[in-house]
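Technical note accompanying the year-one report. For the benefit of new consortium partners, we illustrate the data format agreed upon in the data management plan: each record pairs a sequence with a structure-token string. No post-processing was applied to the example shown here.
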Amino acid sequence: MKNSILKTSWVGVIFFAFSCADLDIASDGRLTMEQIFGNYRLTSNFANSCRHWVPGIGLSYGNNTPLASFCDEAHDAGDNTSGAVNDWYNNRTSPFSNPLTYTQDTWDHYFQGIRKCNVFLSSIADPELATAIISEDEKNGWIAEVRVLRAFYYLQLIKRYGGVPLIDDPYDLVHDFANDRRASFEACADFIIEQCDIALATPETEGRPIGFRWSIGDNEGGKLTRAFAHAVKSQTALFAASPLWTTPESKYTWTKAAEITKDALDQCLAHGFALYDTPIDPEIAQNPYAYYFIQRSDPSRSVDKETIYESSARSNVWRYAGTPVTEGAMKAGAGPSQELVDCYEMQVSGLPPILGYSDADHLQPIPNPAATDYDPANPYVGRDPRFYASIYYNGAPRSLSTKIEKDLFPMTLSTIAAQPLHDNMNNMNVTVEGDGSTHITVTGGDPYIYCNMLTEIMQSERPVRMLVFEYKSNRAATAKIYWCNPGPAENRTTEGISVPHATDWTRFEFDFTAAYNSFGFGKTVGDFFRFDIPNPDGAGNIGYEITIRDMKVEAVTPPPAAVPVETFLGGNCGISDRITDTRYTRTGYYLRKFNNYRSSATVDADGFMKLFRLGELYLNFAEAAYQAYGPETPVASTVAGSSPMTAHEAVNAIRARADMPPLPSLTKADFEKRYRNERRVELAFEEHRFFDVRRWKILHETDAFVTGMRITNEGGGVYTYNRFKLADRNTNSDKYLMYPIKQNEVAKMEAATGVLWQNPGWN
């Protein structure tokens, strides 16, 4: 069967070998492949365009939610509105409609990327086409990078679909699809690792801005490095050895995976990669782990030595997974699950607070009696620092800023009324002293002093208003503040204000915000203060003396941290009673990871997702090593200068960066529990958990539903905590271990090959 019949087949949109679409520019009908590969600049552009299919992972799935919402990490607030989330939660996934491919058809997407890479690799190797003058080092660097890109695209496919057809050259116009076959997962893994090894065998060109290198400049963001190739190898070997994909005959044993993952880790360490542990700005983040995920990486690795490859798009957590008190937030998005919250251990003891659940609905947690630093009445105190970096919980500071912003308005004291309808003062001796202070002596009557008009002061948009001055007095007294309008009948007053006795200069503050909000003063031109110091009861205050200086009004914006996230019922971020209200969490928690609290409708300062980072390589090695040898057996590699490492040591390196106590010596079974928990916490919301529960074949245990926490504020800082179960999702059967292949692709290939290509359970 020929391509002319299957023009829209499973390889995506088949674009012709000599079209200008390969340049991603508008076709003008004149450029040929000879012209493209006969020109240095056009050849370089073609190689760079092969990166177009690298995903900008993040909140990029249907309903602008992360992949975490489709596993047990989170539950999206759009569960009751039309869209991908609602379809997934209600088991409306099929070969005709997959909610996870609403915004990007991953099958077509990655095969188009593979096609582009194949065209480049085939053309650059054809001496009749590739006539541009290019140095061998630079050309070989382009070839190596495109090989690794193709391997990466295949990795994305097999993680989702299992084995796929292996295509290493462009299909011509008369390709016979009847000969195409789906390769096994192992064969695909072989191809991916082989392509990375071929690329890594390319001679290094360190110190020159060409070739396939370990180090690139900050102006080369987006280029692949040798570390990327090792990361692809590490993840591929881990998946190939995992229960979902391994077979008794497979070469990808845990021993083989330990060898590959250790080599990848050691190569990166030997070339200057390190876990991010840079001193933090406490105004932005709580700890280095939090800071890492809101800072953009620098490709030169002068500061960020952990990131291997970063997505090109900001995560936009503030917009699509923001708290209701976040400026410009559109929806609450992915609410972390209670199951995930339970995974964060205690920082002091280093122990899990919850050992599991005694009921099928996860409503009866089993407390860990050894975790004595866990208090169920204060469940968010003393947890793993990564908890505070990743999740907004009840009482969490919305902001970490301690800066107080003020507008200052000096006040002028006078015995002359600001408005002619008010009498001038009588029966009060007032003198102005040399330092600019005003001395007042009460001689009887109803003493008071005027201040300037409030029109300018009240134009400030800052929410808090304070009357401030310094004073000395001969005894304590009680004062009042009057707001005076042009007519005396419009005067309004505060309740009595205590002015304690002060023999030395003392700061006086009075917050009149509530009175201002109640009375709405400052709205009329001519409003002014009248300050009664004191307001005597009879003649009892005759002889009272007070000296005042530096009187002013401070219009204040307090630190945002002063307004915490309130997820209790009725709180500013509490669970909504309306199930279609997507502005409020469904679980009692909000996503914080990647979110910079400074992001708003005008400033997106959120972080970038990491496709690969050194932390993952530590964990990949730890898993393969404990499975192959146990947690305490050192594993060596062939990398010069590297040291043997145990699985235990690799996990503890991750924990040390998070300021968590090291794991104790454990049996293999106990280590597996702690390792999987560590991986879940360290890589939360980074698109690992979705695939981990599948390759471990524990989907049936994890993804039937999630739970949340409903909190009631009892007053006085006391809260009650009640777990609740969200609706069953029915997305944890074995067929959900892999994506369904699109039905139209399955039908075409079955007609062409006579073989049913569909994944198990999706027929």
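Partners are asked to follow this layout when depositing records. The chain has a mean pLDDT of 88.
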